[in-house]
Amino acid sequence: MKTLCWLCLASAPALADPGYYLVTPYGEPGLRAVDLRYWTVKKPGEKARLWPELGLRYGVNNRWTTGLFASYIGDTWGTQKLSSLNWQNLLLLTQGQYAVDLGVHAQLIHERGEGNVLELGPVLQTEWGRSQMNFNLIFEHDWASDRGTQLKYQGQWLYRLRPGLRLGVQGFGELGRWNRWSERQSHRAGPSLRLGLGEADLQLSYLWGQTYGRRGDMFSAQLLWRF
């Protein structure tokens, strides 16, 4: 995905950006929603890098949800530039008949001036009492580079404090090539808060850790507004 040359040495190859939004298996036939996303990466002593995203999501049926997104990047709001156009799809394979729900995440990303990237992988979710647990493995292939197929993971635990309010932990990481993990891996984790606001859902997270072997704290906000 978007290049993060500021995270690597000048002589190092370009690196994909860290995956950040956790994918969950859901099925809402007829769903129409605006999906607003915002996240940052901040190195110690430096300004944060900003990634606002705007998308539309639609539930085609009870097993297939699709969405189109425009992703921007910049050091300030005044310097934002279009970074990529994304077509995201979630296909449900199970719907409550087993202890763990299973879906498939597929996303085609057109990076402006760089080429196309495909993300593909299983998404898992289970619930135990008031707890919701998620774990995803995502394979990423960039046709415009020689990095091969990269492997990323996502994880989450949320506890329902009361209706419309959940608190928990998220974790993300990039391991390098799926069959030869990198020495400069990324691992980040931190608290996450999810609020149900009528027709809208808001999730806020702050993660500490490393991005490709170097310190990089991250903040994200995602607002899904149904209409």
The secondary-structure element order is EEEEEEEEEEEEE
CATH superfamily: monomeric porin ompg
Looking at the structure, what is the overall shape? globular
What's the overall average pLDDT, rounded? 87
**CATH topology group:** Porin
Estimate the strand proportion.
over 45%
Q: How many helical elements?
A: 0
- Detail the poorly predicted runs: 1-16
Radius of gyration: 17 Å
| The CATH top-level class label | Mainly Beta
Q: Sketch the major β-sheet.
A: 12 strands, antiparallel, barrel
Helix content: under 10%
Number of strands: 13
| Order of strands in the sheet with most strands | 1-2-3-4-5-6-7-8-9-10-11-13
Alpha-beta content class: mainly beta
Instruction: Write down the domain tally.
Output: 1
In CATH, the architecture is: Beta Barrel
Distance between the termini: 30 Å
Question: What can you see in these coordinates?
Answer:
The chain starts with 31 loop residues before the first strand and ends with a strand. The protein contains no helices and 13 strands. Mean pLDDT is 87; it is low at 1-16. The protein is mainly beta. The chain has one domain (32-226): monomeric porin ompg (Porin), CATH 2.40.160.
